[in-house]
Amino acid sequence: MTAPFGARLRAALDTRGPLCAGIDPHSALLAAWGLSNDVAGLERFAGTVVEALADQVAVLKPQSAFFERFGSRGIAVLERTIADARAAGALVVLDAKRGDIGSTVEAYAQAYLDPSAPLFADALTASPYLGYGSLEPLYATAQKHGAGVFVLAFTSNPEGAAVQRAVTADGTSVGAAILEGAARRNAGAEPLGPIGAVIGATVPDVPFDLAALNGPILAPGLGAQGATPGDLRALFGKALRDVVPAVSRELLRYGPDRAALREAAARGVEDCRTALGY
């Protein structure tokens, strides 16, 4: 890779449009596509999404758990999915939400953010709730290899608020403290730093000046979870151009027809372009 993640993401969003398409092969969706709930069905599903969308959308986001449930053969499908998507020009954010401390985080960094690893992706989602600093090996490895990390900040699941909006001793919410840490790491980077944030498109508000993040914002929640592209403008304000709207079920329901998937993605891109002021 010749450019850091923030630069590559900025270029992808500007040329292909602001949309991240999920690859979520859960059992109900495999059934809806007429596929078997096994490795063969998993491979057909993931391959279809990559063939339909990897040369069109800016970002593809495979959910690791739906591959892991099939053991080593499922992981092998995930490896091919990541490699094929990147070969077709899409950036890949691996949605694994890893988080731990010490040597374990270092191992996660080697597994997902080192280009020599079979599961290397352009970026990884991570949980910082053992402390923002606990993920330092992820940040350092990402920066070294031009990759990215998306830390969970304010998620759309109702259970998240009890932790993310809890107030620290200095009066800052936990989620805002995570965003502050990411902003410090991104300071001075152009056009975007390598540390992004996951902020659900359905959250009511974000108690942080997102323009100060200087990093990408992955915003899941469009479609099936209830958010619309129009909701993004009110929530993200001056940081709109840094938002990567993510859609999964609303888009994947158009499969297994490749043409229908492409058409639905194209509509989603145009809706997000309009909402985000492209």
UniProtKB/TrEMBL annotation:
UniProt GO BP: 'de novo' pyrimidine nucleobase biosynthetic process; 'de novo' UMP biosynthetic process
Active site feature: K97
Domain Orotidine 5'-phosphate decarboxylase: residue ranges: 18-264
Catalytic activity: orotidine 5'-phosphate + H(+) = UMP + CO2
SUPFAM superfamilies assigned: Ribulose-phoshate binding barrel
InterPro entries: Aldolase_TIM (IPR013785), OMPdecase_AS (IPR018089), OMPdecase_type-2 (IPR011995), OMPdeCOase_dom (IPR001754), RibuloseP-bd_barrel (IPR011060)
Pfam families assigned to the protein according to its UniProt record, in alphabetical order: OMPdecase
Bilayer-crossing regions: none
NCBIfam families in the cross-refs: pyrF_sub2
Protein name from the UniProt record: Orotidine 5'-phosphate decarboxylase
Species in which this protein is naturally found: Actinocrinis puniceicyclus
